[in-house]
Design brief:
nine-stranded antiparallel β-sheet; 2 domains; alpha+beta; five-stranded antiparallel β-sheet; Proliferating Cell Nuclear Antigen; DNA Polymerase III, Chain A, domain 2; 4 helices
């Protein structure tokens, strides 16, 4: 058990379900996550090992019931191990996370009918600073995460990839496999489509293994997603969060050979 040394930071959150869902969504991209924890909140920007996908996450201090961090620190944890512990939190439990400065152990406290304190090691924090990509997009589509998730499931029945395209009037998903194909169209005016705009017709192809994993995990945190893309460029997926912060992904395209 960790000795009670001074804490580098301490945060408490009562919405355990959302917090757990957000960490699970991040784990779709990275398993060893380096968080920057500062006076204004926590953030992470990281790429997956194959450098095909990036996640950009922020949770401001206002999202927490209590939050203390006087200086900025970087903490790397194994998300699978942390999520394993957080799954033990009950619906009405409060989660408190802190870092013991003396032992370097990450402390996970669950406060409910009784108090449980787990400790786990921190890993070597990544030195890599992932810059925010400077991209401009020609198409922007906002729809419900459930509907987007369903269209990807349909596409995955027939192919490993999906082509996403829009002319500003509808969002079309095309999937073509060796045997079968699928075309899903969501037209302007549909209940599934919240808004759609395109400076020019745009289309790009993406790996469904990445896309379905990201959208499935992130849909537990969000009801609405905004897609931004241009022809044969990365897609930006911005999942509107229920807390003060953001959860955004970038996914590189697969370049199709005509």
């Amino acid at each position: 058990m960790c000795a009670g040394g001074p804490l580098l930071f301490r945060m408490r959150i009562s919405d355990t379900k959302t917090f757990r869902s957000v960490l699970n969504a991040i784990s779709a991209i990275v398993d060893e996550a380096t968080f920057t924890i500062g006076p204004d909140g926590i953030k992470l920007r990281a790429m997956d090992p194959s450098r095909v996908a990036m996640v950009d996450f922020e949770m401001y201090k206002t999202s927490f019931d209590e939050y203390e961090a006087t200086e900025e620190s970087r903490v790397c944890v194994n998300l699978s191990e942390l999520l394993k512990l957080l799954k033990r939190a009950g619906r009405d439990d409060i989660i408190e996370l802190s870092l013991d400065e003396e032992t370097g152990r990450f402390l996970v406290k669950m406060i409910g009918r009784y108090i449980r304190t787990f400790n786990m090691p921190t890993l070597e924090a990544s030195e890599e600073e992932v810059p925010e990509p400077k991209l401009t997009f020609n198409a922007k589509v906002t729809l419900t995460t459930d509907d987007f998730n369903d269209t990807l499931k349909d596409a995955a029945l027939v192919s490993d990839n999906v082509r996403i395209e829009t002319d500003g009037e509808s969002l079309v998903m095309n999937a073509k496999g060796d045997i079968s194909g699928a075309r899903i169209e969501i037209k302007k005016g549909s209940d599934a489509l919240i808004s759609i705009e395109a400076k020019e017709p745009s289309k790009a192809t993406f790996s469904l293994s990445y896309l379905t994993e990201i959208v499935k995990a992130a849909s537990a945190t969000s009801d609405i997603v905004t897609l931004e893309f241009s022809t044969d460029m990365p897609i930006r997926l911005d999942f509107r969060q229920r807390y003060d912060g953001k959860l955004v992904y970038l996914l590189a395209p697969r370049i199709e050979v005509e």
